[in-house]
Hints:
mainly beta; 5-stranded antiparallel β-sheet
Amino acid sequence: GNAGAFDGxxxxxxAASARASSPAAGYTAASAIGxxxxxxxxxxxxxxxxxGPNEGGIVGGTSNPILFKLQGSNNDIAYTDLMAxxxxxxxxxxxxxxxxGINVSTAYRYHRVVFNSNGADNLYVTELxxxxxxxxxxDSNDWTPVGFSLTAGSTYDSMIDVPxxxxxxxxxxx
Length: 174
């Protein structure tokens, strides 16, 4: 289920990963996975990280790269593209790390990553992590929290998807 992508486990197999079974081709809701931060809660995502399964790539276990977008919404109907990119290799245990190019002009209640499905292969996400400006500095090599700071609004980032936010929930058709 979708919860597999938000359980804090970064190294999982296909069975434990969130999965979309052969979603329609293109960027569709069926190939999206994300978070509802809860009523009255908005976040400005500054970075995110996607982990693929340890048995194969995100795209049906193959080594094909995939196009994806980060999107935000305040009504879970109309989504705004915040950035678009392509994974590099599609390899086993692939980690997609975004450190820039995200439109941070607006905070949103819902955030999701939507993949450009080929219409044939399943999509697998072992873990999806969202970060926003806040309490932790993130080392770009391994994104472990370093240099704890209580200064809100600084240039630091903090992971905000684990554990699940009270009143929020996992989103998507995985």
